[in-house]
Amino acid sequence: MLQFTSTLLMFIYASTKNKFVGFISWTTFGVFWLLNLPYYLSISDYFNSALMVAAFSLFTLLGLTILRANDDVFPRLTFIAAISSLIYFTFAETMLGKELIEIVAAQTSILASFLGYEFTVREDLIYYNDKIVQIILACTGIESISLFAGISLGAEGRVVNKLKAFLVSVPVIYVLNLLRNTFIILAYGDSWFGENSFYIAHHVISKLLATVALIIIAMQVFKYLPNFAEDIFKAKDVVVRTWLEKKR
Question: Of 116, 247, 139, 94, whose CA–CA distance to 190 is shortest?
Answer without folding.
Answer: 116
